[in-house]
Amino acid sequence: MSERPGPQEPSGRQAVVVDALLGFAVFAVVAIAIGAGIGGGDLPPAVAYGFATALGLLMLVRRRWPLAVLVVTAVLLVAYYVADLPVIGLAVPVSAALYSAAAFDRTRWAVGVAAALVGVSTTARLSEGQDPAFLLGYELVTTMAVMGAAIALGDGARQRAEGARQRALIAALDAQAREAESAELLARERARIARDLHDAVGHHLSVVSLHTSVAAEALEEGETDLPVARAELEHVSQAASEGLRDLRATVRALREPEDGTGAGDGGGAGRVAGLAHLDGLTASVRAAGLDVEVVGEGGKGLPGLVDATAYRVVQEALTNTLRHARARRAQVVLVRTEEALIVTVADDGSVVPGNTADGGAPDTGRGGTGLAGMRERVRMVEGTLEAGPVPGGGFRVRVRLPIGGGA
Questions:
Q1: Alpha-carbon gap, residue 294 to 110, rounded angstroms
Q2: How far apart are CA 75 and CA 69, in angstroms?
Q3: How do 340-347 and 291-295 pair as beta strands?
Q4: CA distance readout (Å), 50 to 30, 71, 121
């Protein structure tokens, strides 16, 4: 006979002690009633005390089999009175069993057994000729009140225990949700830091690589061109210095959030990069041999995260052009509307066969982490990104960044 979960139980020795004390209390109450010697036939008192002992011992297993304890208690009471033993009452001997059954979610059984006992007892006593006024007007009301109180106490204990379990479950689920949210935020922050470092260092390293290659060619044996090599090495030095500056600014922004905001919300990003630095970016790209034209303005008054995202998109697009496109010209177009900033970066680079961008169209080899990083940045400000080859040759990156996106 399977039993349902009950109230929060004491563990180990404490539970045994509690049940032993309850069993002794049941035995004592019944034994006192037996000792009063009211009524009863010719059977020896030892038989009555045996019933009292059995009722008390049942309390030791009430936690494991509360329904069985209730049924056996009811059967023992019926047998006790059938044997014509001294009167011990009805409600008190069965109250502990009723309480245990209700406490372990067997309230309907407790009510049914109590009603059955009352019905059988009342019918039998009326048939024996006992005074109906006393039986129905006093004793029946008292018996029902005691039984009802025992059932109510047990059901109340069950409900309190169930509420405590539900609160504990909710707390555990809430803790799991907070842990999952923290893990997600940590992963997003790590990805954002990786993008910042990639953008801050990758562009300048690409410029350094290009100028170094040109300087090496100028210094090749038999074709030494010192002025060209010196100029290229100056560009290398400048690009390296700018890369270190951006790297330091990125690290500083991560360590010292601006205005109490975290680095992940763009508080530090505005100090690291923004469209106000676009002239310096295009100057370094032009020095690397790519003719860059900037059309339009849109950096003033932009939220820091949107401003930083626009700058990083332009930086990554031009870096990809330097690395992969073999382009001669590029154009950066900034269009500011009331709702959004639209940034377009296009070049006239050649298409490298075998590579694909979105939609499976061939691209210039720029479908790696650069485009993925741009998409993640744009998604942070709830914007959209389109990237792919354009008719007639070249590659174009177009993003739409809502004003206030990511807030």
A1: 85
A2: 10
A3: unpaired
A4: 11, 18, 21
How far is residue 13's CA from residue 21's CA, in Å, rounded to a whole number?
12
pLDDT digits (tens, 9 = 90+) for 218-265: 677 556 667 766 776 776 776 777 777 777 766 776 666 544 444 444
For strand 395-402 and strand 329-336, is the pairing parallel, antiparallel, or unpaired? unpaired
pLDDT band at 330 (very low <50, low <70, confident <90, very high): very high
- For the chain, the three-class secondary structure string (H helix, E strand, C coil) is CCCCCCCCCCCCHHHHHHHHHHHHHHHHHHHHHHHHCCCCCCCCHHHHHHHHHHHHHHHHHCCCCHHHHHHHHHHHHHHHHHCCCCCCCCHHHHHHHHHHHHHCCCHHHHHHHHHHHHHHHHHHHHHCCCCHHHHHHHHHHHHHHHHHHHHHHHHHHHHHHHHHHHHHHHHHHHHHHHHHHHHHHHHHHHHHHHHHHHHHHHHHHHHHHHHHHHHHHHCCCCCCCHHHHHHHHHHHHHHHHHHHHHHHHHHHHHHCCHHHCCHHHCCCHHHHCCHHHHHHHHHHHHHCCCEEEEECCCCCCCCHHHHHHHHHHHHHHHHHHHHHHCCCEEEEEEEECCCEEEEEEEECCCCCCCCECHHHCECCCCCCHHHHHHHHHHHHCCCEEEEEECCCCCEEEEEEEECCCCC
CB 376 within 8 A of CB 357: no
Task: State the burial class of residue 333 (Cβ atoms within 10 Å of its Cβ: 0-12, 13-18, 19+).
Answer: middle
Say how far apart CA 229 and CA 211 lie, in whole Å.
Answer: 9
In this structure, are residues 132 and 188 in contact, taking their beta carbons and an 8 Å threshold? no
Alpha-carbon distance of 283 to 207, in angstroms, equals 11
The set of residues, in sequence order, having a beta carbon less than 8 Å from that of 167 and lying 6+ positions away, is: none
CB burial string 104-128: b at 16+ within 10 A, e below: bbbbebbbebbeebbeebbeebeee
pLDDT interval class at 384 (50, 70, 90): very high
Provide the terminal-to-terminal Cα distance of the chain, rounded to the nearest Å. Answer: 59
